[in-house]
Amino acid sequence: MNIQVKESCTARILLAEDDEIMRITLSDRLRKHLWCVDEAEDGKAALQLLKENNYQLVLSDIRMPNFDGPRLLKEVMARSPETDVILMTAFGSTEDAVKCLKEGATDYILKPFDMDDLTIRINRLLDMQKIKAKCMSLEEKCREQHAPIVGSSSATRKVINLISQVALSDATVLVTGESGTGKELVGSAIHYSSGRSEKPYIRINCAAIPEGLLESEFFGHEKGSFTGAQTMKIGKFELAEGGTIFLDEIGEMSLDLQAKLLRVLQEREIERVGGLQTIPIDVRVICSTSRNLVQEVKKGSFREDLFYRLQVIPIEVPPLRVRKDDIPDLCNYFLKEFGREKGRFLSISDEAMSLLQGYDYPGNIRELKNIIERLTVLVPSAMIQAWDLPADISSSFREERRNIPLKLADAVAKAERACIVNALKESNGNKTEAARLLGISRKNLWEKLKTHNM
């Protein structure tokens, strides 16, 4: 078994070939293309490497002693369905190769073959993997925009009911709440539940764009209006025509731009930077902020007239710590989401779920989502246990485990003593009643009290 790891490799390939000369020749040629190649002399060695590493592609001979190509294919399909498999076959085993294609192999190549032909096939498959990855990324972004609001707690139901009412109008909405609570989900839910759902939904993070560029981002600019404006640019408000624009972290906007936004909301028209004409717009505005805008108004960093203009309909998204009943639903939703993405479908033990519900999540739903994604990658078994959780969540569980004696007899004695203490407390020291609660005789209780030096 030969394993090679390079920092600069563009893809990792597992080569399973029992013919040593063929294996060495192939691996040398493949490495010239900056591919990392791990070599296995038979199917069993290849299976061991599959357990330890991730591969973009498996190149395997279809006929090997003990553990052949078709069996290896089944293991690859079970462990890593996104990995492509090319089978190398002699002329006499073409029927086997075609059968493997039906069972999930990506391609097969007849021996003897031209190395250029093989590298062309590998490059094509690796290119297709990149395209699939881009498509998955786009699908993920679409899912984020159309993601449901998960949860059945009374606080979440209240927000969902308010969204269904707000969606019927075109009124301006101000969504408030701590960072990570899902304010963007509320904005997209309002848009896609409204009569504007077939029109554009444009999102802008006001905190992520430099202040000097934000006006141009909002309203566009004319050619030559400032240094670097070599062409005319359409702004986000124009792009959202007929639809909805979501202004995230509106509290980060400068006072000067706040005044211009107020005029847009009042007049329903914009002017491009450097332009002389007004452009009428039909856009619904939804804003969000994690700041307390009432305090910002008092400090003078946010315009009072804009605040009241935005807060036609206020929606406050509660933090996760006050709606912990939603945590099981959220965990299961994220497990399915990351399971589709990574090909791993996990569950959570009752003990681990109890710990997850006992944590306060300063980062709210975003923090919970990151925790579940991390667990999906790192947990070795199919069920997430209490000891798999981050230390700040599982600290109480770890402390309990440290206090449990290693010897079984000591652990049983400790548990028995605790039960007796609880029974005595419950019976206010009445030993007859305590014995009844414990389900033992009074004599047996006396013996146990002596044993435990009580």
From TrEMBL:
User: Which domain of life does the protein's organism represent?
Assistant: Bacteria
Sorted alphabetically, which Pfam families does this protein's record hold? AAA_lid_14, HTH_8, Response_reg, Sigma54_activat
- Per UniProt, which keywords does this protein have? ATP-binding, DNA-binding, Nucleotide-binding, Phosphoprotein, Transcription, Transcription regulation
Q: Which residues carry this modification: 4-aspartylphosphate?
A: 61
Metal-binding found in the keyword field = no
Under the heading PROSITE patterns, the entry gives:
RESPONSE_REGULATORY (PS50110), SIGMA54_INTERACT_1 (PS00675), SIGMA54_INTERACT_2 (PS00676), SIGMA54_INTERACT_3 (PS00688), SIGMA54_INTERACT_4 (PS50045)
CDD domains cross-referenced by the UniProt entry: AAA, REC
Which GO molecular function entries does the Swiss-Prot or TrEMBL record give? ATP binding; sequence-specific DNA binding
Entry-linked InterPro entries: AAA+_ATPase (IPR003593), AAA_lid_NorR (IPR058031), CheY-like_superfamily (IPR011006), Homeodomain-like_sf (IPR009057), HTH_Fis (IPR002197), P-loop_NTPase (IPR027417), Sig_transdc_resp-reg_receiver (IPR001789), Sigma_54_int (IPR002078)
**A single GO BP annotation from the record?**
phosphorelay signal transduction system
Domain called Response regulatory: residue spans: 12-126
Record domain Sigma-54 factor interaction: where? 149-377
This protein is called Sigma-54-dependent Fis family transcriptional regulator
Origin species, per record, is Candidatus Desulfobia pelagia
